[in-house]
Structure formats: structure tokens, C-alpha cells
Amino acid sequence: MVFQPRPNHPYADAPRFPDGDDVSIDDLLPGTGPVEIEIGPGRGGFLFERAAASPASRLLGLEIRLKWSAIVDERLRKGGLGGRVRALNADAREALGRLRPDASIARFFLHFPDPWWKKRHEKRLVMGPALLDSLARLLVDGGELFVQTDVEERAALYAEQIGAHPAFEPAGDAPGSPHLGENPYGARSPREHHAIADGLPVSRLLYRRRPREAGAGAGAGAGAGAGAGAGGGAPADGG
């Protein structure tokens, strides 16, 4: 659940993902360019770099921390990017379940998600069947899911989870593998910058949305593991 601040909270006016069962991406980001969504943008470093690298794209960051959604969205507006790049306060798992239309998103980015290690924190994990079902429904055919982590065990877990979902196929450097040696998007998150500077290995996973069967709905193939949802929208990247 997203934190609901008191009226006198310093970030009470932070921009939020709208209420309602059907939220149109075109209402959030008017325009015609391809839409890319970052789950957990943190301080917004990747959003700014990606906006510069892909000036035709519309970008949306879904950030569960009220402070950073407010600060980043204001910086985007002041930088003249507010028309095509936004940061909204949201639990991404819940918000993406209400985003429409199906087959409307070109890419999803998750940078260093799930900074939780204890058993009692498992409910906070953002990656899981419920999120993957939403991503599968929203991605265009051939759309991309890019995940990075500097924790080897988490990389193995994500590869297992995504690989088990029928809507995704690996699109890494080698046939049949999701692993990439380099980030291909011309933009890095702050955590990735720090990891590279410190000489830490970064696991990068790339998947594509399989083509939907002819005559099937846009959400076809998105039901694997439905109802077995994971956590409460933990922040990604942490910086």
C-alpha cells in the first residue's frame, strides 16, 4: 500500500498515480511516442539519462517513496521534460494492474529491485507472478523487459521467475539466454554507476514479449501464476 500522508506532510502534494479501475497511459503521458516505464526510479537518474538518449520516447517512473516521486517529478518539470516524462507515487504492482490499454508499453525497466533480505520482508518483494502478469498484458508484442541487479542470487531468482512465464522469451547476447554483458539503453541508474565505479559485477537480464496468438486478446499468455502475487511494491535502485 502506498503511504497516505497527513495534509501537513511536506510531500502531501506529490503527484500520484490516479484512482480508478482503468487509467489510460495516454492521459498520463499525452503524445504519440513509444512508452517506457521504470519501476522504482528512486532519485530519477535513469529517467533523465534515458530521456536524453531517447528523445522520442514517453517515460513514466512509478516510485513508492513519496519524497522521491515529488522531487523527481518537480525536477522533470523544471527541466522542461514534464510533457513526456513523469514520476508518480505508486505501488507499481497495484498501479500496473489498472493501467490501460493492453499492449501499449514498449519497455519496462527494473534496476536493482528488492533490497530486502529477511524472511519477514518477503511480502515487500516487487518481482513475482502478479507483476509479471501485468507486464505481459501491457507490453506490445516484441516489447522488452530489462532487469538489473548486483546480487547474483537475485539474478538467478529473477531468471527463474521470468523464464517460467509463458509470455516472455530470453533476448540476451547468446541464443536462449537472457544475460547481457552491457546495458544497451544509453542510460544508467545511480546504483549501476556506483557498481561500475566500484568494480562490482552487474547481472543484466533482457526478455521480449512473445507474439500473441492470432485472435487472442492482448493479455493472452499473462495468466501463469495469477493469484500468487508477491509483495508490496518495494523500491528499486535505492538511489
From TrEMBL:
Signal peptide as annotated in the record: none
Gene behind this chain?
trmB
Q: Which residues bind substrate?
A: K118, D150
CDD domains, sorted = AdoMet_MTases (cd02440)
Q: Which family does it belong to?
A: Belongs to the class I-like SAM-binding methyltransferase superfamily. TrmB family.
* Record keywords, A-Z: Methyltransferase, S-adenosyl-L-methionine, Transferase, tRNA processing
Pathway the protein takes part in: tRNA modification; N(7)-methylguanine-tRNA biosynthesis
Q: Name one Pfam family in it.
A: Methyltransf_4
**Binding positions for S-adenosyl-L-methionine?**
E38, E63, D91, D114
* Catalysis performed (reactions): guanosine(46) in tRNA + S-adenosyl-L-methionine = N(7)-methylguanosine(46) in tRNA + S-adenosyl-L-homocysteine
The record ties this protein, via InterPro entries, to: SAM-dependent_MTases_sf, tRNA_(Gua-N-7)_MeTrfase_Trmb, tRNA_methyltr_TrmB_bact
Q: What name is this protein filed under?
A: tRNA (guanine-N(7)-)-methyltransferase
Cite the SUPFAM superfamilies for this sequence.
S-adenosyl-L-methionine-dependent methyltransferases
A single Gene Ontology CC term: tRNA methyltransferase complex
Give the protein's function: Catalyzes the formation of N(7)-methylguanine at position 46 (m7G46) in tRNA.
The biased composition feature labelled Gly residues covers: 216-239
Name the Enzyme Commission number(s) assigned to this protein. 2.1.1.33
Annotated region Disordered: the residues are: 1-20, 167-190, 215-239
